[in-house]
Amino acid sequence: xxxxxxxxxxxxxxxxxxxxxxxxxxxxxxxxxxxxxxxxxxxxxxxxxxxxxxxxxxxxxxxxxxxxxxxxxxxxxxxxxxxxxxxxxxxxxxxxxxxxxxxxxxxxxxxxxxxxxxxxxxxxxxxxxxxxxxxxxxxxxxxxxxxxxxxxxxxxxxxxx
Length: 161
Fold this sequence. Notes:
161 residues, 2 domains, two-stranded antiparallel sheet
């Protein structure tokens, strides 16, 4: 099978001047004129598509959690809740800062691994992207979340396969 025959998924920004709708049915067909598409913008719909798309989903989800933690830290630094003592407030602020640093580092690692796996989809690269994305999901969970057991089992599976 040639590269031209591989079914792929390309995400194009809606309203892009280089793209036009050819057929509006399901699935919609687009025509792209004189558009350079970087390799990491194309997801080949093969056996690697699911783990790579799940890794991307983990990065997006963790980025949302990161934004929430940054917003909560900013609110705590501005106001606090007024009723807590200085020590409890300091502990909350420290926890927010620690969580933020962990998420930033893991998001960066997961994004780098995903980029590598998209451009050069070897089984090792795809497994590494999945592993780091699972660790990222665990780090993004709130304390005591019920998902931890499932994610740890998933991580064990990626480490032993």
